[in-house]
């Protein structure tokens, strides 16, 4: 009898240890709201929206302890539209993220799959777009610098360092997977960040070569390492670089982010149509310089305020359009997992000439004039 009890006890201990060494977590976020836009192709519009701040998603995240500070890790993350139940990211099952790799407490992590680039990883957290404080509709025009995570990189291998006294760095490479075309349809990026008490600084660079091309009349695109399910632009080469900082004091945080996006060789705008067109030609080259000043403040542990102003100086089709956008958000937490929010955006663009572009708040469509206003009331639930 005693032997039986001892065996049962040891079995329980080993089972508990094995369970502690390996884990799989189901997680997700659902963002649903009602959005008003004063001008969408010449008409006002009320619509039910999914992901006005944060894209609705569910995912699986796992880790297995291999000993000596080494772990096997994976993430599979699906994006979907809560209003109609369809998959996002071109209908992909795990379109937001899908990767597997090894992680070391001492040396960092190496992962392979469909992943975010270094601009998103390192610089993105310093802007309001792409975060819980602004997200989709706070993006810089057309999300030209990808700080809102509009596209991911397929066929990629990524290295992310461990945290060395506040210093982190990393790099990513996306393969073309083409025989005899190693330099075509590829992407690469690198970034670095440093945290010292309340101060955070970061910088990052991204480049894609021959990631795709677009026919501005038909909207037909070629595919590349950067997926074309939501890519804002098609071009022979796209380069993004920038830097930023933020500083926290008490319940407040203020920040500044600068980015520049340069596009060469057959540029087309693909994620925003004009009057039903599938794509808009932007000439042989285009450039966007974005200057964002942002801040957020916790009035109480449950109530937060966030705001930013972004000035974008662009070069498109020989014109010099200038975008001014002001964004405001307030959110109230009903619990640790559920909150309600109200946010609004105003954009004014000038200097568009005969390019045909109007004001364009990300995710709500194109205005027929140089001004656009949008407002959303919504609820978010995390699990």
Q: How does this structure look, described?
A:
By secondary structure, this protein is mainly β. The chain contains 2 helices and 18 strands. The chain has helices spanning 2-21, 118-123, and strands at residues 22-40, 43-50, 57-67, 70-79, 97-104, 108-115, 153-160, 167-174, 186-196, 199-209, 233-234, 237-249, 252-269, 280-298, 303-316, 322-333, 338-350, 371-382. A 16-stranded antiparallel beta barrel has the order 1-3-4-5-6-7-8-9-10-12-13-14-15-16-17-18. The protein starts with a helix and ends with a strand. The relative contact order is 0.14.
Percent in helix: under 10%
Distance between the termini: 45 Å
- CATH class assignment: Mainly Beta
Per the CATH scheme, the topology name is Porin
Whole-number total of structural domains: 1
Widest sheet: strand ordering: 1-3-4-5-6-7-8-9-10-12-13-14-15-16-17-18
List low-pLDDT spans.
1-18, 215-221, 273-277
Alpha-beta content class: mainly beta
Determine Rg (CA atoms, Å): 22 Å
Q: Characterize the main sheet.
A: 16 strands, antiparallel, barrel
Give me the CATH superfamily: Porin
Net shape: globular
Strand content: over 45%
From N to C, what is the helix and strand string? HEEEEEEHEEEEEEEEEEEE
Number of helices: 2
């Amino acid at each position: 009898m005693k032997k039986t009890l001892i065996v049962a006890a040891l079995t329980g201990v080993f089972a508990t240890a094995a369970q502690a060494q390996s884990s799989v977590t189901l997680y997700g976020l659902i963002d649903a709201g009602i959005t008003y836009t004063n001008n969408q192709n010449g008409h006002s519009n009320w619509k039910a929206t999914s992901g006005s701040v944060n894209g609705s998603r569910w995912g699986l995240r796992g880790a297995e302890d291999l000993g000596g500070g080494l772990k096997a890790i994976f993430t599979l993350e699906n994006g979907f539209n809560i209003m109609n139940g369809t998959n996002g990211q071109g209908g992909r099952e795990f379109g937001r993220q899908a990767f597997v790799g090894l992680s070391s407490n001492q040396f960092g992590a190496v992962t392979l799959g469909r992943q975010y680039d270094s601009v998103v990883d390192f610089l993105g957290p310093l802007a309001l777009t792409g975060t819980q404080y602004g997200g989709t509709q706070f993006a810089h025009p057309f999300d030209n610098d990808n700080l809102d995570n509009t596209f991911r990189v397929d066929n990629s291998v990524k290295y992310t360092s461990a945290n060395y006294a506040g210093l982190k760095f990393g790099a990513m490479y996306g393969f073309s997977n083409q025989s005899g075309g190693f330099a075509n349809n590829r992407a690469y990026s690198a970034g670095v960040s440093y945290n010292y008490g309340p101060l955070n600084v970061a910088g990052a660079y991204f480049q894609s070569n021959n990631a795709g091309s677009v026919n501005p009349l038909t909207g037909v695109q070629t595919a590349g390492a950067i997926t074309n399910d939501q890519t804002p632009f098609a071009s022979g080469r796209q380069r993004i670089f920038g830097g930023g900082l933020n500083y926290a004091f008490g319940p407040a945080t203020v920040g500044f982010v600068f980015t520049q996006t340069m596009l060469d060789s057959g540029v087309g705008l693909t994620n925003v149509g004009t009057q039903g067109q599938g794509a808009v030609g932007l000439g042989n080259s285009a450039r966007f310089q974005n200057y964002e000043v942002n801040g957020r403040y916790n009035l109480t542990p449950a109530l937060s305020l966030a705001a930013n102003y972004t000035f974008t100086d662009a070069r498109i089709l020989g014109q010099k359009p200038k975008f001014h956008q002001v964004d405001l958000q307030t959110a109230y937490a009903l619990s640790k997992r559920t909150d309600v929010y109200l946010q609004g955006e105003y954009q004014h663009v000038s200097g568009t000439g005969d390019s045909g572009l109007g004001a364009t708040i990300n995710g709500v469509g194109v205005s027929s004039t140089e001004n656009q206003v949008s407002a959303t009331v919504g609820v978010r639930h995390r699990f």
